[in-house]
Amino acid sequence: MTGHIRQCPNDHTYTLLNVCPKCGTETVSVHPARYSVQDRYGKYRRLVREWSR
């Protein structure tokens, strides 16, 4: 157990486990990526976000 809160993408259950206790799928971290002034890939993430709208 890492101590960081995670969320199941299927049923939106919050847990500390790597696997959802309800449905058994892998959970994802709910924390955003760290901010860095020297972000090499920020331009590409913003482009993907624009295209996905």
What does this structure look like?
It comes from Methanorbis rubei. One of its GO terms (cellular component) is ribonucleoprotein complex. Belongs to the NOP10 family. It is a single chain. The chain has a domain at 1-32. A hairpin with a 6-residue loop joins strand 1 (6-7) and strand 2 (14-15). The longest helix has 10 residues, at 42-51. It has a 3-stranded antiparallel β-sheet, with no helix packed on it. The protein is of the alpha+beta class. The protein is 19% helix and 11% strand. It has one helix spanning 42-51, and strands spanning 6-7, 14-15, 28-29.
Instruction: Tell me what portion of residues adopts beta-strand conformation.
Output: 5-15%
List the helices and strands in order: EEEH
> What's the mean pLDDT score?
87
What is the strand tally?
3
Shape: elongated
Keywords: Ribonucleoprotein, Ribosome biogenesis, rRNA processing
Function: Involved in ribosome biogenesis; more specifically in 18S rRNA pseudouridylation and in cleavage of pre-rRNA.
Family: Belongs to the NOP10 family.
Protein name: Ribosome biogenesis protein Nop10
What's a quick, concise take on this entry?
The protein has 53 residues and is an alpha+beta fold. The protein has one helix spanning 42-51, and strands at residues 6-7, 14-15, 28-29.
